[in-house]
Structures are given as structure tokens and as C-alpha cells.
Amino acid sequence: MDPIPTLLRILWDMWDVRVLVLLSLAFQIILFVFSNRRKYMSSLWINVVVWLAYLLADWVAIVALSKLSDALGDNSNNVFPAIWAPLLLLHLGGPNTITAYSLEDNQLWLRHLMVLGVQATVAIYVILMSWRKYFWFSYLSLPAFVAGIISYVERVWWVLKLASNDNLGDIVPFKRQADISLDGQEHKYVRTLVMAQKLVKQFKRYIENYDIGRFVFKFPSNQLSTKVQWREKFTSDDTYFWDALEVEMGLMYDLFYTKASIMYTNRGCVIRFLSFVCIMSVLVGSFWAICRKENWHREHYNYSTIDVTITGVLLFGALALEIYAIIVILASDWTMLWLIEHEKGEWVIQLRRKFPWLYKQKKWSKKVGQFDLLAFCFKQNKPAMLSGRLKEKFDRYMHKTHVVVPPNLYDTILNYAYYWSRPSVMKLDEVAQATLISTMKVLDPHLPAFYEVIVIVHLATEICYHLELNITNQRGANSSRHEKQIMETCRTLSHYMMYLLLMCPWALPINLSYTELGNLIHDLKMFIKDKEDVNRACELLKDYPITLHDPYDLRRILLVVQKFVRNFLGWERLRSLWLGMLGFAAIKGDKNYHLQQLRQGGEFLTLLWFFIPQSNILDRIDAAKVGRQINNQVTQLTTSNIDNYVA
């Protein structure tokens, strides 16, 4: 018994190629429209849509090509496969806005090259088979084939291959760095672009030799002076530096995931012009040929209105995508840099002033994830059709939130960076400094693991925050605006680090199993399950006598939390502690993780990963002196002391 009804089988045999070629065009439109948005949108649905379109686009185009080659062997007189086949090859070349979904795709350039050879052979076969039967459309297939080959070769050879083999930053367009002398607030955008260009050239070389084992981060010595000069020149207005970092992240995304490395070169301009001319010639020629209806019967053409419509949709769609690609190119930061390089900085100002909707684009999401562990422990999770580990992950995912990065946090980080760059950094309070340095020595077996430090300081921050609010409400006293701002900053950073720990543990320098973390959260839930709300839980965690009957890991953590709260050093020092932990997480971060985050809306930790080696934070720190201070000052947080305290 045939499981597929006869009618469906007949319909599929009639429409399979037509549906596939239209699907291929639809996926190209989706990639053109949505792929570039993942640079500044931290959205799951955007990533899922782009991921599905990226995977299915190549598959559909390849299947459609194979179906076209089969159709030619069925004594069909359809004239349009000669045009459809090279247009499918054009689709395989992909849009300018995405060449790789992830970094690994760049490494697979050789596989894409082999696919190119196979699919080009199939396209040539389709053209040759149609050449024997038809005349006019055979000639039109040649410029379409040229456009398809150009697009595919551009993607595989000049983009994927160069992105995977670049070690010296050679793929960065514009070899000559622009020098400008523009003053005034209206030229801030131009100056920011130039600064970002200089930073991206240096940082591209830097990450190729990235070593997370180094404690001190430096650029090559022959480039350090230039970096410092530009940083000092622009830090009169600190927003220049942050704006430049954001632009730099966008430029780096373009180099790894789009055709930017070739589009903004002379070769890229020639390629784009040839592709546009070829598509236009095919469109005009096809329109002229279709209009010659009186010759169709004489030339034994099989004329189908549906096929004519599909051909028109494919050609107009290809032309529209080419025009859209040109608009994207003209509106990009790379084009603005090209104008600046050719001393047309005033043009950049005028374009941005007349078309603000086109040139004022977001560079990243500017959001930070948030996860409140205590609130999660009190949350009554709704029953789900999941069990075990999947249910726990789903509950965490539903509990997380995102907030916009507080504007004052940028200035705080810069001030913190300047403070660390001075020799007086060694004069910090001994306890705060010992706690901070302990987070940077997670491999020392006598210190708490980094994930434990995050949990400890997170719980301590929550307790101090809620106790402070209770005192303020009871006494009717009002804290100063500055103090409230610092409190909220501490809490935002605390929730962000917990978000990274629970939702993105691979972003942190930890080696933690899901079971360990899950057991810790379960024990904390059981410990505070009888309390009414978070405020009561904070009172319990602050003063509750820990006994040997409590779980060992939780007992060890809570004892340090209580000690931390009793010896609270103030919100400013707590903020410095969180910034130190955040900076350490960025310093020790995995390069591939941060580069992958560029395609997911950007991560605040990734912004710091770009910021730290370019801010001269750690250039003046004497690692040997730090090591001596560690031995003298971290005893308050050693595991041995905690065990003795428990006993």
C-alpha cells in the first residue's frame, strides 16, 4: 500500500522544482533581512530563524539543482531550467550579510569549495543539456552562471578561507589608517570611527595570539604607543572610547560573519559591479524573450505562464537583493571609513545628518542578563511536561531577565580602570584586595573555587541590599542618590554574574558539573523553604546558626557569607569587588566564546573582553608583587580556615 496518496504524488511531481526554487529565494530574503540584526539583537527567535534559514538555504538549493538535472532527462521542453540553475548557484553564494553562522563555518571552507565544484558541474550540465534544445535562453544562462560563480567563489575563497587563515589582520580593509583633525561635537561620529578602525586593526592581530594564561595583557610593543596616544586623545570625553569599542565589535562581527573583508576592496567593487550587470542583462534579456510570443511556437518552446511568473520572481528577487546589498554597503561603517580615508569626512557628517534613520544603527544589544538566585528559590515553578535536568534548565530560562546596561556603569568601569593602572592600586584595603585577588587565583586549592566566590558575594549582596532597604523603610531615612545608585549597580552586577554562572557557565573560568550546581541550588531551596519571603530569608542567612547537619558545601558557603555581611566594607568597595570579578572573568574568557557572542546581540562580558587589553588596565601591575600579597592576605577566604570555622 502506497503511504502517499496518488494525488499528492502527482502534485509533487508537477511542482517539486518550482516549490524548491521559490523556497531557495525565500530563504535568501530571510537571511538578507534578519542575519545582520543578530549583531545588535539578543533575541532567541532571531537566532533560530537565521539558523534554520542558513542550514536550509544550501540544502534546498542543492536539492533543487539535482531535481533540475533529473527533469532534463525526462524529454521535457521546459525552457526555464537554463535560467533557474545558475540562479540557484547565485543563492548558494549567499547574501553579503552572512557567510558563516558560527566561527566553525569559516574553518569548513574546504568543504564548501568541494560543494562549489560539484554544484557548478551540475549547473553546467543543466545549461549544456538545455543548449542542445533551446537557443535564446541558453545564451541568457551564461551571464547568470557568471553571477552565480562569482558569488560562490567570493564566499568560499575570498571570505571563508581568508577569515580562517588570517593571522596578521590582513583581512581588515583599508591598509592606510585615516588621520583627521576635526573638532567639535558634530565630528564625534567621524572621530569615533577612526578610533575604532585603529583599534580593530590592532585587536585582530592581538586575538590571533591570544593567551588566557597570561596575567598581564599587552599589545605588541611597536603598537602600544599608538594605542595609548589615541586613548589619551579621546578620553577627554569618555563616551568616545565606549562608542569606539562598540563600533569595533560591529566591525569585528563583519570580518568574521559577513563579506566585509572583500566587499570594501577594489576587487569587491568590481565583483559587485559584474554581478549586478549580469543579473540586469539576464532580467532584460528574459523580459525581451518572453515578450516575443510569436516566436515561441516556431522555436518549439514550451511556454508556461506559471514558469514565466516564477522566472520573473527569481530575477526580480535577485535584482532586489542586489540593490538591498548595495544599500547595506553604502550605509555601513566601512563605507564611512572609506570616505574618511579619502578625506571626505564632511560627507560622512552630511550623510548622517540627512539620513539619521540609515546611519544611526545599534552596534550591540546593550543589555545584561539578570538572575536572582534567592527569588528563584522562592519561585513556585509551574508543572511542565519535562522532567529532571530539562525541567530545571527550563525553569532557570524562564526566570532570567534582561535589563539595559546602566549608563553610569561605563564611567564606573573607566574610573576603575584608571585606578588599577596607577601604582597606588596596591594601597587598597587589605581585606577587599585579598578578596579580589582570591578570585584571580581559582586554581589554588586553598582558595574557594571561582563559582563559589560568585555565589558567596551574590548572597552577601542580596542580604546587604535587603537589610539596607529594611533599615531605610523602618527609620524613614533616605539614602543619598549616589549611594542608591551604587547599591543598584552592585545588585545589577551581582545578578549578571549569577546569570553567567547559571545560564552561560562556559563563559566563566570554571570547571563545574551540572550536578554540583544543581545540588547547591537544591540545598539552598531546602534551607530557606519555610520562610515567607526574601526579606525573611535574608534575616535567616545573616544570623542562622550553621550546624553540622546542614549540607557541607552549603554550610561552607553560608559561613563565609555571614562573615562577609558582618564585616561589610561598604557599597563602593563591594562594587569594586564585583568589577574585579567581572574583569577577571573577561580576562580568563575563551576567545571563541566572545567571538561567538558577537552574533548573538553581544554580551557585556564580551565588551569588557575588548575593553581590558585596550584600556591599559593591567600594564603596570607587578605580577610578582601581587603574588607576594596573595600569600599574605587571602587567608580569610581559604578553605582550611572555613573548615576550622565550621568545626
From TrEMBL:
Q: Does the keyword Membrane apply?
A: yes
Keyword terms: Membrane, Transmembrane, Transmembrane helix
- Which chain regions cross the lipid bilayer? 17-35, 44-62, 82-101, 108-128, 134-153, 269-290, 310-331, 496-514
Record-annotated DUF4220 domain positions: 51-375
Origin, by domain of life?
Answer: Eukaryota
- Protein's recorded name: DUF4220 domain-containing protein
